[in-house]
Amino acid sequence: MVSGLINANPILYEKKERRARSAPSVADEYAVEPIDQQEIFDHIRDIKDPEHPYSLEELKVITEDAIEVDDQHSYVRVTFTPTVEHCSMATIIGLCLRVKLMRSLPSRYKVDIKVAPGSHATEAAVNKQLNDKERVAAALENPNLVDMVDECLAPSFN
Amino acid sequence: MATLEGGFQLREVQRLEGHTDRVWGLAWNPATGNAGIPLVFASCSGDTTVRIWEQNLSSGLWDCKAVLEETHTRTVRSCAWSPSGKLLASASFDATTAVWENVGGDFECVSTLEGHENEVKSLSWNASGSLLATCGRDKSVWIWEVLPGNEFECVSVLQGHTQDVKMVQWHPTRDVLFSCSYDNNIKVWADEGDSDDWQCVQTLGEPNNGHTSTVWALSFNAKGDKMVTSSDDLTLKIWETDNIRMQSGDGTAPWSHVSTLSGYHDRTIFSVHWSREGIIASGAADDAIRFFVENNESSVDGPSYKLLLKEEKAHDMDINSVQWSPGEKRLLASASDDGTIKIWELVSRS
Q: What is this structure's pTM?
């Protein structure tokens, strides 16, 4: 394998078992079911890593525990852990997470995406860029970036 | 400012739909709203268009009069009218600035300014309309001279910010330019030698009690001796200068921090605008609009500011711009990620 890759040999982890969502205790089909950690995780677990044929879950870039959600205040924070400290793909991964949640969640939601503390050499810079919506908007008008993001997101829509 | 004491309430006058993507910017035409001329404003959007809205004098409501399209190919981030109201400039992520002229109700693109390497994010006309400033992701600020025949000549490219420049704004009376950036700084630029020798004369940053994250917007009070800035650090900051030095033409009169308004907005404050009568409006990613006024109670620490009113859930999504209208009434327009524009009136609670 020609190693132009940032992380040529990533460690793979086992996927979490897919739990069926618990049936609502009240059989009222109009009852609003709050969005929870598990639902958010299900939206993003199958996103493909930008440089490997594995999912973000398999690479443990994201875990269910690293998702904070407050449905009442329409707020989600996803903290992800790049596989290597100097991962130049961190902003792409963050962009994929943001786009997937933008497309999956109701528009009332506010989303923050962060790299896990200590997991990236330029943590503050990556976080600032990922949470500047003007930069995100500009990035999403770049056809090459959009292609890359769409490719990573494809498995997550199955 | 006795009229600002007592209760106020915000009345939603109208909700305007038309843009098919988030609305980024708003600009009221300064030559409208008096002498029977209906109020006009422009809005710009991620849908690559600019829309012109005009008030119907009998209903008091606004209609879309024109859609300026097929010129910009990407997001139009901001727009600004020349002081005479005859020209409208629009800044786009497509790296160009377009200048439009109102010819009998039709808007024609009369000039396209190229030079920025990539996204143009903001623009501002000086008080006399002889200079136009633009800024963008390439970290630079450009100053263009307006020549006869809708020609624009770049007279200076200002380097100094270390990250993208979010907004430029001319001082309301002097030819002194202010810029704010993703590098957390506000820079003051002046032409020291009368020969297009534009220099950075001051940097307001963290060591000057400045912002600790991206500075998104700035606005001046009517006199031009104070300015307010808004930031991703969730604060608004008030700055002041020596008005006598400033009015005597000394562009290098230093600005200093007066007050920090914190603990109000919960998310990034994208926009702030100071009204002629002294009311500061701010719009943020927490979907709320807030109004602040100077606290009249004398204080040994200098002026302080208090919250006059807040409107939670003013929009369904982030608020990107708030702009006071010209004219008699206290009208405010707001633009949002929800694709709508709202017109509000701030009225005394009787």
A: 0.94
